[in-house]
Amino acid sequence: MLHRKPYSETSLLVDLLTEESGRLTVLAKGARAKRSALKSVLQPFTPLLLRWTGKSSLKILTKAEPAAIALPLQQTALFSGFYVNELITRVIEPETPNPQLFQDYLHCLTSLAVSQNFVEPALREFEFKLLHILGYGVDFLHCAGSGEPVDENMTYRYREEKGFIASLIKDNLTFFGRELIAFERQDFSEKSVLQAAKRFTRVALKPYLGNKPLKSRELFTQTILHLK
């Protein structure tokens, strides 16, 4: 389950990510009723076995039961899981089958559950895989201006829809060649590469997300400020 919200007095509208049908929105009738078994089942980060009916964009949920126990996400990992859920909800078109996305999502959640407070590598890996699924096709290994292989020690500036071009300008869109090579390998073991990857994915995902702020990011910031 990616997200849910109340519908009428006793029901829920639920966004799901399924292995064979992609992202779906289903109506869970009576799920908010006191005696509904669905109330405890429709929880984030719990693998589910599901059945639904309907040919319109809004399906009717007919069965839901846990396929395994919920992944134990806490603190930073929990907020990171909400962030991943919101990314999928915002950028993936409904009813577009994508088994690879489903597997990438499970892998990300499992990594978050294991790492807990050191979540950045898992998030960056998922963001890069998501960009690939969205059709993002930038070449990290060659200069978009000359076609030459990137040099580890040179700097390259990112230009949307073009790629990375050798440049002496240093700003938020500038990356070292060694960072770009690490991006291609999805190797985020070095702290500097991890920081650069975060800068890049925020820029690359922005056209898909638009200007609407991510609620999960706002919630995390508010919680940290409250704890201080």
Automatic annotation (TrEMBL):
The gene is recO. The keyword Cytoplasm does not apply. This is DNA repair protein RecO. Gene3D superfamilies: Nucleic acid-binding proteins, Recombination protein O, C-terminal domain. Involved in DNA repair and RecF pathway recombination. It comes from Basfia succiniciproducens. The keyword Hydrolase does not apply. Residues 2-67 form the DNA replication/recombination mediator RecO N-terminal domain. Keywords: DNA damage, DNA recombination, DNA repair.
